[in-house]
Amino acid sequence: MSIENSKSDLKILRAAPRGFCAGVDRAIQIVERALIKYGAPVYVRHEIVHNARVVGDLRDKGAVFVEELNDIPSDHKSRPVVFSAHGVAKIVVSEAEDDNLHAIDATCPLVTKVHKEAQRHYKNGLHIVLIGHAGHPEVIGTMGQLPEDGVTLIETLDDVARLNANGAMAYVTQTTLSVDDTADIVKALKEKFPDITGPAHEDICYATTNRQEAVKVIAPQCDLVLVLGAPNSSNSNRLVEVAKAYGCPHAFLIQTACDIDLSWLANVKVLGLTAGASAPESLVNEVVTFLKDNFNVEIQDTVIKEENVLFNVPRDLRDVG
User: Fold this and answer.
1) CA 250, CA 222: separation in Å to the nearest integer?
2) Is the pLDDT at 223 greater than 50, yes or no?
3) What's the distance, Cα to Cα, between the start and end of the chain in Å?
4) CA–CA gap between residue 140 and residue 164 (Å, rounded)
5) Could you give the domains of the chain?
6) Is the peptide bond before 41 cis (omega within 30 degrees of 0)?
7) Please, which pLDDT band fits residue 2 given cuts at 50, 70 and 90?
8) Helices 206-218 and 234-245, interaxial angle, to 10°?
9) What is the per-residue pLDDT across 97-125, written as a single tens digit (0 to 9) for each?
10) For residues 172 and 131, what is the distance between their CA atoms, to the nearest angstrom?
11) Integer Cα distance of 204 and 82 in angstroms
12) Nearest-angstrom CA–CA distance, 88 and 77
């Protein structure tokens, strides 16, 4: 018997859309183009997106990642600094202006939309309820658009039950939440506060929605779903939750093919594969190669929607590249 024939059969259902969204692609382009235009180093406040491979590749090209602006050496204050795709609080923008830093904003336009919504409603006298995950950079940035007493963060249905109204309210949401869980929270908010104002268009971004919908389609057919993404990636963690909620008995978040434990696949006949919005397609390809080395693989692509969204980089970087 040949080695090839001794391998078990494995069918891979590869979900699409998967991987990079327009906001992530734009943020990466901004750093790459800034490096071409201004040379290294270009500083980046926080991870530009939540993916170690992406961060590592940009670091190799000359990007320097810092947690706060005051981590930039005093003799490098003239160097560009990029704000991550997750957005930043107003105080960070003010700090950059006070230090005369050359700041380049890579905030995803869909996150900026949420910022503007929150600011508009607050200006009109409404208290803002933000549905999101405490401590996530996007949530910190959104809450940082408003005075501390102007916004309340809620994460669960229990938080809705405990929420007290002290006047007119509006809600906004983090862009990378579970579509289903958020719908339940919004329903509870509207039932408790019938006059609460919501966004004209849903805040959860198209990419988060599409990736979850694709997983919902493949999950009932799979024995195991693997999601490529970072542990601190909200949208990637939600894909694991969705896979389990929609009928797949096992789902794991992995960062690379190296994280796969072959014991997971001992009784797996059909495996689902997807990637969060910050994970490059190269990671998906590496997983497929690993699986082909260990199984007789059949690949079936499940495409629920074609994505053609593009976001322009800032004007002063458009002639670079």
Assistant:
1) 9
2) yes
3) 53
4) 22
5) 8-20+206-303 (3.40.1010.20), 22-109+311-317 (3.40.50.11270), 110-192 (3.40.1010.20)
6) yes
7) very low
8) 30
9) 999 999 999 999 999 999 999 999 999 99
10) 6
11) 24
12) 19
Its pTM surpasses 0.90: yes
The CA-atom distances, in angstroms, between 249 and each of 11, 38, 93, 252, 275 are 16, 50, 45, 10, 18
Catalytically annotated residues: 138
Tell me 150's DSSP state.
G
- Cβ(228)–Cβ(45) under 8 Å? no
- Three-class SS of 244-261: HHCCCCCEEEECCHHHCC
**How far, in Å, CA of 116 to CA of 312, rounded?**
19
| Burial (CB count <10 Å: 0-12, 13-18, 19+), residue 18 | buried
The answer to whether 207 touches 111, Cβ cutoff 8 Å, is no
User: Cα separation of 72 and 258, whole Å?
Assistant: 34
309 by Cβ neighbours in 10 Å (0-12 / 13-18 / 19+) ranks as: middle
Q: Which residues contact 271 (CB under 8 A, 6 or more apart)?
A: 10, 11, 12, 13, 222, 223, 224, 225, 226, 265, 291
pLDDT surpasses 70 at 54: yes
Residue labelled with tokens 């201004």: 38
Identify how many contiguous H helices and E strands the chain contains and give both numbers.
11, 12
Contact 280, 229 (CB under 8 A): no
The span from the CA of 179 to the CA of 202, in Å, is: 10
